[in-house]
UniProtKB/TrEMBL annotation:
Annotated InterPro entries: Class_I_gatase-like, GATASE, GMP_synth_C, GMP_synth_GATase, GMP_synthase, GMPS_ATP_PPase_dom, NAD/GMP_synthase, Rossmann-like_a/b/a_fold
Protein name (Swiss-Prot/TrEMBL): GMP synthase [glutamine-hydrolyzing]
Entry keywords, A to Z: ATP-binding, Glutamine amidotransferase, GMP biosynthesis, Ligase, Nucleotide-binding, Purine biosynthesis
Keyword Lipoprotein: no
Ranges of residues in domain GMPS ATP-PPase: 199-391
Species assigned in the record: Jannaschia aquimarina
A GO MF term: ATP binding
């Protein structure tokens, strides 16, 4: 296994991700925990020293134990890791004065190095490769045994190595996407360290299960199940680890799609045999929403009631000590890097962030290290149905925000039917997986139509379908006119209450994905 010593960089987890992509097993440990004893227990086959915010010349700046360089295994230092390595092995690091580099930079090769195999290929024209830098300090004198293999304008020692001892040190961040060939560098490093790349999601599952058992012991855990991919994968994984010590709470707020509640209950209760509380609170939510048409008031009403209801039902379990959440790694980075920044509330997101403190519960977050596509891979590994894993995201406030204006049961019933026809159309045409999210919004206007020989006065609806990578920006999906025409005809024929269909061609920004 490979040890990543974390000095606090924002992107340390990305190193782990790159290694998982190479099917190499690694563990991240904060530098404080990496002691001499730890090292001899862990017995890593290779070590990576991460970046970090500290400055090597400062008193008390973090260091790994010196023994890390006596293990006889390859070591790769990145950014701060590179500087600390140079410093400890006899080089010198200077505080940045006019030598800082943030963002894109270009490295020019100086000599051949196994770590860089294939790295500078195809660069004959420019002779340089793009990398991502983020440093103030820089190495000013190399440690004995090291040579320079690449330079950038502000980092004369951008790539250095002691090939005898297999120590490699780079100033840039090979783990980020803006270093396009960074993955190649990791691939070469793990090959040099002798990893065969046979570690899999199956192994991750075993390891995550062991970690959950250790954290939870014989305590009880509750988990809010939304029917979405993240909470479902988290629940199945935790159930596999601790069985009936886990109880799931599924809140049905009456704003779910057609057949959704039954599907969730059948799958988790009948198929997975999990203790599941099906909190049917439709009346509570729908009566609280009566007469409410302001989007923020709707969102806040739903959020507040959700917390109350969840708390009430979770209380039925009695004596739970943990709350399980399907937090993903991007949620973790975002909350770190954007904390405290001035930002405007566009929409109050429905989340249960305040729940653990309110209920005095500790958190179990087994997906914290994973990205969305890795959660899907883990879901497949756990045997969750394909249709479930590939599902489009669905917002916490559900259909409420797809029903601009006042919500009524009648409108919700119409919306559910129209949405089911639309999604069926998309699936029939094999487009579901190309689209990030697709849904129908029922509009608060009625329009006049003619069907058969009669006049109709029914609701209009809007179809929405977008492509996106992360939901932050989005573009509308370019359906063919034929598809749109066929879908409109089906909705009008099959859904009583709708006599007009429109297609929303707004991107985000300026629009948002949901209508409210
Ligand atoms: P917007 O409408 O802001 O949506 O462009 C971006 C993505 O977030 C989803 N969304 C939510 N998800 N709670 C959620 O869990 C919410 O309150 C919420 N509001 C929007 C939306 O479906 C899209 O995927």
């Amino acid at each position: 296994r490979l040890l990543i010593v974390d000095f606090g960089s924002q992107v340390t987890q990305l190193i782990a991700r790159r290694l998982r992509e190479l099917n190499v097993y690694c563990e991240i440990h904060p530098f404080q925990n990496v002691t001499r004893d730890f090292l001899s227990d862990f017995a890593p086959r290779a070590v990576i020293l991460s970046g970090g915010p500290a400055s090597v010349p400062d008193d008390g700046s973090p260091r790994p134990p010196a023994e890390i360089f006596d293990l006889g295994v390859p070591v790769l230092g990145i950014c701060y890791g590179q500087q600390v390595m140079q410093h400890m092995l006899g080089g010198e690091v200077k505080r940045g004065e006019g030598t800082a580099e943030f963002g894109r930079a270009y490295v020019t090769p100086k000599a051949k190095l196994e770590l860089l195999e294939g790295w500078f290929d195809g660069l004959e024209a420019t002779g340089r490769e793009q990398v991502w830098m983020s440093h103030g300090d820089h190495v000013s004198r190399l440690a004995p045994g090291f040579e320079v293999y690449g330079t950038s304008p502000n980092a004369p020692y951008a790539i250095t190595a002691d090939t005898e001892r297999h120590f490699y040190a780079v100033q840039f961040h090979p783990e980020v996407h803006h270093t396009p060939k960074g993955a190649r560098l990791y691939e070469n490093f793990v090959r040099l360290a002798g990893f065969s790349g046979d570690w899999t999601m199956g192994a991750y599952r075993e390891q995550a299960i062991a970690a959950i058992r250790e954290q939870v012991g014989d305590a009880k855990v509750i988990c809010g199940l939304s029917g979405g991919v993240d909470s479902s994968v988290a629940a199945v994984l935790i159930h596999e680890a601790i069985g009936d010590q886990l109880t799931c709470v599924f809140v049905d707020h009456g704003l779910l799609r057609q057949g959704e509640a039954e599907e969730v209950v059948t799958m988790f209760r009948d198929h997975y045999n999990m203790p599941l509380i099906h909190a049917d609170e439709q009346d509570l939510f729908l009566s609280a929403l009566e007469g409410v048409s302001d989007p923020e008031t709707k969102r806040k009403t739903i959020g507040r009631l959700f917390i109350d209801v969840f708390q009430k039902h979770a209380g039925e379990v009695g004596g739970a000590e943990f709350l399980a959440q399907g937090t993903l790694y991007p949620d973790v980075i975002e909350s770190v890097s954007f904390s405290g920044g001035p930002s405007v509330t566009i929409k109050s997101h429905h989340n249960v962030g305040g729940l653990p403190e309110k209920m005095g519960l500790k958190l179990v977050e087994p997906l914290r290290e994973l990205f969305k596509d890795e959660v899907r891979a883990l879901g497949r590994e756990l045997g969750l149905p394909r249709s479930f894993i590939g599902r489009h995201p669905f917002p916490g406030p559900g259909l409420a925000i797809r029903c601009p204006g006042e919500i009524t049961r009648e409108k919700l019933a119409i919306l559910r039917k129209a949405d089911a026809v639309y999604i069926d159309q998309i699936r029939r045409h094999g487009l579901y997986d190309e689209i990030w999210q697709a849904f129908v919004a029922i509009l608060p206007v009625r329009t006049v139509g003619v069907m058969g020989d009669g006049r109709t006065y029914d609701y209009a609806c809007a179809l929405r379908a977008v492509t996106s990578v992360d939901g932050m920006t989005a573009d509308y999906y370019p359906f063919t006119h034929e598809f749109l025409g066929e879908t409109a005809t089906r909705i009008i024929n099959e859904v009583k209450g709708i006599n007009r269909v429109t297609y929303d061609i707004t991107s985000k920004p300026p629009g948002t994905i949901e209508w409210e």
